Amino acid sequence: MNAAARALSVSLGGGAHALAGGLLWIEPSASLVVADLHLGYEEAIGGALPLWSLDESLAALERARAAYDARELILLGDVVHGVRLSDGATARVLTTVQRLRQLCTLTIVAGNHEGRTRGAGLLGECVEEIERAGMLLHHGDRTRLSGARHVIGHLHPSVALGGEQSVPAFLVAPELIVLPAATPYSRGLNVLSRDCRTEIGAYGARSTSTHVIAATATHCYPFGSIASLARATRALRGAP
């Protein structure tokens, strides 16, 4: 990672860095990680929208791979929104995945949206988990415990801004890193919700030691711990 790229990242410890766009950079293995692309979502909701997220996702990952000179791209589950796509949408998804394979080594981790076959029928070879830089990477739909730090997606964490607006966010604890969802169609799970605390608690992470980093397309914004963000939010609501 060059100096300019490092200045826009947030170190998460252990060689992991939060990047703009919700990507994770694992420096020791030169791996770029993205979670919850949900390709084909537009068709899954009835085909009212064109499959524009395929091209947008591919372009963003191509830029990131070049910027960080990544040797590996890891798709951390829910690569597709569903496996029952039309022939046309299936062809578009396969073309996108093939383009990603041409960029560098591609590792696909299975998620719950890959269906009962865990993606094998559509995406080819998928794995349930991998280890990089001493961290255990898996989608997060099947909670598992180990002595390693877990890196997951699945939860779609976000910071609620009021109304219908929210910003995707990383959750970072000694036990756990949760990536934001890459899909533009998810409002996400409010990081201040009880459900969020329950989900991260399954890995031993606490709200007092789990930090929130909002990720826009161009910047990362550290917000402190979930507990401190909750206190600040309550104070602001009570302010004149």
TrEMBL record:
<dbReference type="Pfam" id="PF00149">
    <property type="entry name" value="Metallophos"/>
</dbReference>
<dbReference type="InterPro" id="IPR024173">
    <property type="entry name" value="Pesterase_MJ0037-like"/>
</dbReference>
<protein>
    <recommendedName>
        <fullName>Calcineurin-like phosphoesterase domain-containing protein</fullName>
    </recommendedName>
</protein>
<dbReference type="GO" id="GO:0016787">
    <property type="term" value="F:hydrolase activity"/>
</dbReference>
<dbReference type="InterPro" id="IPR004843">
    <property type="entry name" value="Calcineurin-like_PHP"/>
</dbReference>
<feature type="domain" description="Calcineurin-like phosphoesterase">
    <location>
        <begin position="32"/>
        <end position="121"/>
    </location>
</feature>
<dbReference type="InterPro" id="IPR029052">
    <property type="entry name" value="Metallo-depent_PP-like"/>
</dbReference>
